[in-house]
User: Fold this.
Amino acid sequence: MSVNPSRLEAYVFHSAEDTLTFCYDAERASRNGETWEIPETIGDECDVPWQEEEIEIKRLVIEPSFRAFQPTSTACWFCGLNQLETLEGLHYLDTSKVTDMNHMFSDCALSRLDLSHFDTAQVTNMNHMFSYSACLTSLNLSGFDTSQVTEMWSMFDGCSSLVALDLTGFDTSQVTDMSCMFYRCSALTSLDLSRFNTSEVAYMEDMFDECHALISLDLSGFDTAKLIHMERMFRGCSSLTSLNLSNFNTSQVINMDEVFCGCTALLALDLADFDTSQVENMTAMFKGCSSLTSLDLSHFNTSQVETMQSMFEGCTALTSLDVSSFDTSKVRRGMNRMFAGCSSLTSLDVSGFDTASVQEMWGMFSNCSSLTSLDLSGFDTAKLTNMGRMFQGCSSLTTLDLKGFNPSPRVYTTSMFEGCDALTGVDLSRFK
Assistant:
């Protein structure tokens, strides 16, 4: 007896205590247990009905009947199955019509996934596809056709057990968003992105954030003409000794907040191609780059920058730093801890800094223990509210010109000169 095709239905069946089964048949009404219809579309919130019951699923089965079903979306289908041990029958899933795979395996407990057979020719959205899958040690995407994909943000975010990832077959020519793509892939030691076409990408913030094990990255082939956001792009890449950014076009970038923060192993950084004319935020840009001995920023255009706090904080190996050409006229939100902990700097020319709009300089030069002199005579302190710990720990400082300083009685100055034991001949009567 043949089954009426009009009665066929795609649904998910809680077939046993710890098992979910995907079916496509006419038997839903006769199933003992809870069943759920498979929605045609699921948004980024991942409101998948079979997850709402908070069932602990250890086994997932896709029945042979399911191969006749052609979904247009598999978004969030296996998302949140953080107890899953086995996935059976994945080859029965026909993805040839699928356009949306966002969050498909997000927060899934599987340790191995072979998706080389997936037909992804129609897919446009792979956002969060494998995000937070911290148990994943092996991922085969060798058959992926990504020629239509426009969004890959957070695609591998939190895949903290992945040691290797082969993306050499990826076509990224349509992708506009790669933000957080490899965020927290903390076990990856290498990544070959030489074939990536990034000509349409506008967002790369947090792209490699907390990739603690990466030793080198060659991004010299990246086309970044449309790049706007790159904040925290390499933050926490603490094993990175080599980073090739030659040919980087940053002419449209507006945010470089923490972009190299925590790159403690970087020995050199060539930013000769960096155009910073549109950048508004340089907060903690080089914070913690404790192995850098030199940094050429003489060509930096900082005319639009509004905040520089902690920009060089913790650059303990820097022996020289030329910031004499910095335009700080728009800096208002602060220079807090800008040079804090730059303990190897023996000189620093900030005499040309325009500080008329700056509100805070808390700890600006704290623990610059090798500095012997500072000329701040041109500093306008009219809008300053906080100068606390500004020179704390500047133990070698013998000459300090503050004649332009006119602090308000309400300005916070606690511990401003603490530890400046070599400082003599400076009138500190205005500083309480």
Observations:
- The chain has no helices and eleven strands.
- Residues 1-96 form one domain.
